[in-house]
Amino acid sequence: MEARESGALWWSARRMLVVSDLHLGKSGRMARRGGVLLPPYEGHETLMRLEGEIAALAPETVTCLGDSFDDPEAATLPQDEALWLARLMAGRDWIWVEGNHDPGPVVTHGRNVAELHVRGIVLRHIARPGAVAEISGHYHPKVRLAGQSRPAFLLDRDRLILPAFGAYTGGLRVGDPVIAGLLRADARAILTGKGGLVVPARKSGD
């Protein structure tokens, strides 16, 4: 498997692209609830990045590890984004894994599953303590290095936690007890962006 600079995971043997936490519709959800008004362009940016990965890799399967939409109402995308997403999905096995923001079937196209089992590996939204051979998302892990906070994959021999792929997503520092309690002492953080820098998760400066 390849941890991509974008924050996506490429499982070449399965021709599967895995992304987590797209949080499409976040600006709309915040506006509906009277929160901070954000420019409604995060969907375009997220879909553009996703399209770039699909164009580069030509996956047969795309798996979204939950919180693909910021809430169930956000699954009704603006028409241009809905058509864009439909074009990306065309001809592919597209799997929506349930998240805490989008539990249950939230879209009619593609497959909706609670979790996905592939060749002894389980793909789910939230990591489970004690699980092995697990790929998950949810925590939006970030590492602070040289004064900058960067999304990161977290890896040990039991699990892989993906960074958030969505444009309007915050993050949880790797040193937070919630994340640290899931990882072994020798866990590594793989930073997104150019270079794919790998650092010890417990000594990441965050």
SSE topology:
Layout: E1 2-3, E2 9-11, E3 16-19, H1 26-32, H2 42-57, E4 61-64, H3 79-89, E5 93-97, E6 111-113, E7 116-118, E8 121-123, E9 134-136, E10 141-145, E11 148-155, E12 159-161, E13 172-173, H4 177-180, E14 188-191, E15 198-200
Parallel strand pairs: 3-4, 4-5, 5-6, 8-9, 9-12, 10-13
Antiparallel strand pairs: 1-2, 2-3, 7-8, 10-11, 11-12, 11-14, 14-15
TL;DR?
The protein has four helices and 15 strands. It is an alpha/beta fold and 206 residues long. Helix 2 runs parallel beside helix 3.
Characterize the structure shown:
- The chain is an alpha/beta fold.
- 18% of the residues lie in helices and 27% in strands.
- The protein has 4 helices and 15 strands.
- Helix 3 links the parallel strand 4 (61-64) and strand 5.
- The chain is globular, with a radius of gyration of 16 Å.
- The two termini are 26 Å apart.
- The mean pLDDT is 87.
Tally the helices: 4
Rg result? 16 Å
Largest sheet: 9 strands, mixed
Low-confidence stretches: none
> What fraction of residues sit in β-strands?
25-35%
SSE arrangement, N to C: EEEHHEHEEEEEEEEEHEE
Describe the oligomeric state of these chains in a short phrase.
Answer: single chain
Structural class: alpha/beta
Classify the helix fraction into a percent range.
Answer: 10-25%
Number of DSSP strands? Answer: 15
User: What's the overall average pLDDT, rounded?
Assistant: 87
Gap between N and C termini, in Å?
A: 26 Å
Name the shape in a single word. Answer: globular
